[in-house]
Amino acid sequence: MPGHVHWKVNTINDGAQRKQAPPEPARLELAERVLHAVPPRSITDAFVNHFLSVVNYRYSTIYAPTFTNQYVQWWADRAAGKRLSPEFTCLLLRVCAYSVQYLTSSLRKMIIFEMACDLQQLTDRFSEAAEQLSQSFTAANTCVERVQEQFLKGAWLKSEAKIVESWHVLGCTIREAQELGIDRDANTKGLNEFEIEIRRRIWALLYIWDWQMGAWLGRPNLIDQKNLKFKLPTLRLDSSSSEPNLLSPFAHMALQASLGRRLNTVMGDAQSVEALSANEIISIQARLDKFIDDLPSIFRLHDPDTSLDVDHPYLVFQRHQLHTVLHVTKLDFLKPFLTRARDDKKTDRDDEFRAMGIDLALDVLMVARRLFDHEFPINAKFHMVVFSIFDTSTILCSAIIHDSESSLTRRDEVTNAINGSLDMLHQLSRSTKLGASSYAFLYKLVQSHPEISCGAGAGKRLRRLSSTSTHTLELPPLVHHSSSKESVNSSIGIQAPASISQTSTAIEPTSTMPLIHDFSFDVDQFLAQNPLGSANALDMGGIEQIWDWEDLNLDQFPC
């Protein structure tokens, strides 16, 4: 019998079999007051269906059968005039807020018509209502739902390019999870296998976010990354007898958690990449290559098994996401050798590492292009799309600028890759401020250095940025759709609104996609107000808060 039939989200157990305290009257009343933010049932169903069948697969934060059972009961309780769970109400609002950020064109049109409001206003409305309710919760009486809704808040903030705020929310989420003993498999007496599995998945997600934000963005770790006593999820919960080769929807996250643990083991006492010796870097790269070689066939880098993609389209995104994470991780250990002059020796193998770094950076942009092709334009807000392109391109710019001897390997390919990155960021600039500011910054960096911009033809792109014409792009070969063999709509009881097609999540041509409402970004003003030397005052729509200009070592090069 599957464990989820025993799942009770509202139950917290510790050594004394502690139960969640009954909701205080004030919180119950507050839950009633925020109900104005919840749309009619048919509209809310559309948001929840889209979340469970598409958006949730980014992190697999929520276990769909359990959530849907609670969701159906929540509406039944509301119809019967019963008191509603404040915790689940808050979680539902977070789900809706996050779902709205990634709506398809057809869903956008339907929601705008039915709700008569701007989508940005709608996602903000959900988020503000959830926040109003969330602030009434106390740390002393937390629960799994509370941790889940805080994680979704962090994911929502990332998509809104509020990266610093997201990092602070991550800290709160980690503390909530630790309060429940999730970080060490503590307080599990009386819990069944299913409940323990869900707790392990939550901690794996938090561990991944903390590791990656620390390694890639220079944020202080909030979790002791050297404490590797926590157990990874088993993933048995999602095993399928009819499709034995189908991996758990959480597999791509479990693999990332496993990778982070391995890297933190081999890093030893080193506090940063800069502190690693040449032999340690070689050892880490070898371990990363071994990890990649051992990937399940569905996630292989070369010639992956795509036989399940049609019935389970989330595998396509997860494959691209995992490949991008793996390449960015490998490049991170070689970044110091690309952002310094050749005569500024760090080890006796600097030239070898520089060549390896160039190869890896070009590989990053190759897999980032695949992720971009899959996500653009509907999911342009996904932070990994912009970050992988922008960060890698600026590293390559630094490599060329420091290459005073013109000895850099694959130099022409590097300039072409930077050119391609400008093109991708230009397209992203039509959808998000983060994409626009990243494009403008990279353009400024390229144009300031003739050794990069020569032949790039980037001038036309900047002029096109303010153009009102729309771009018609070819669709990626594999696209999202919600008509999987076991659709959430049919298997777990949510009735889809009659006006919404079961294939409404398919990516549609770019020409039908409206630009983000109320989005405006003046590139000329940005370039005038943000010379590259003034990184402390740089306003890049959020990316300046997570990305370290000083890491490029370009202070001595006038821009």
Features:
nucleus, Sec_Metabolite_Reg, 559 residues, 0% strand, mainly alpha, single chain, 21 helices, Xylanolytic transcriptional activator regulatory domain-containing protein, DNA binding
At a glance:
The chain has 559 residues and is an all-alpha fold. The chain has helices at residues 25-33, 41-53, 64-79, 86-100, 105-115, 119-134, 144-159, 163-179, 193-217, 251-267, 278-293, 314-332, 335-338, 350-375, 383-401, 411-428, 433-447, 450-453, 459-465, 488-491, 523-529. 53% of the residues lie in helices and 0% in strands.
Distance between the termini: 65 Å
Strand content: under 5%
Shape: globular
Helical stretch tally: 21
CA gyration radius, whole angstroms: 24 Å
H/E topology pattern: HHHHHHHHHHHHHHHHHHHHH
Structural class: mainly alpha
The number of distinct β-strands equals 0
Mean pLDDT: 81
User: Helical amount among residues, as a percent range?
Assistant: 40-55%
Largest sheet: none
Note poorly predicted spans.
1-21, 455-459, 465-527, 529-537
Secondary structure: elements and pairs:
Elements: H1 25-33, H2 41-53, H3 64-79, H4 86-100, H5 105-115, H6 119-134, H7 144-159, H8 163-179, H9 193-217, H10 251-267, H11 278-293, H12 314-332, H13 335-338, H14 350-375, H15 383-401, H16 411-428, H17 433-447, H18 450-453, H19 459-465, H20 488-491, H21 523-529
Helix pairs in contact: 2-4, 4-6, 4-7, 7-8, 8-9, 9-10, 10-11, 10-12, 12-14, 14-15, 14-16, 15-16, 15-17, 16-17
Characterization of the model:
InterPro entries: Sec_Metabolite_Reg, XnlR_reg_dom. One of its GO terms (molecular function) is DNA binding. Residues 166-239 form the Xylanolytic transcriptional activator regulatory domain. This protein has a domain at 247-307 and 314-478 and 522-559. The protein contains 21 helices and no strands. The chain has helices at residues 25-33, 41-53, 64-79, 86-100, 105-115, 119-134, 144-159, 163-179, 193-217, 251-267, 278-293, 314-332, 335-338, 350-375, 383-401, 411-428, 433-447, 450-453, 459-465, 488-491, 523-529. Helix 4 (86-100) runs parallel beside helix 7 (144-159) and helix 10 runs parallel beside helix 12 (314-332). The N and C termini lie far apart (65 Å).
